[in-house]
Amino acid sequence: MALPLTASGYTSSMDWSPTYSVNVAVIDEQHQTLIAQIRALQEAIQEERAAQPLSRILSNLRALAQAHFMFEEGLMEAHAYPEMAAHQAAHAELAKRLEELQRQLNAGNTMPGTQTIASVRDWIAHHITGPDRDLGAYLNQEGVR
Ligand SMILES: [Fe+2]
Ligand SMILES: [Fe+2]
Question: What pLDDT is stored for residue 90 in this prediction?
Answer without folding.
Answer: 97
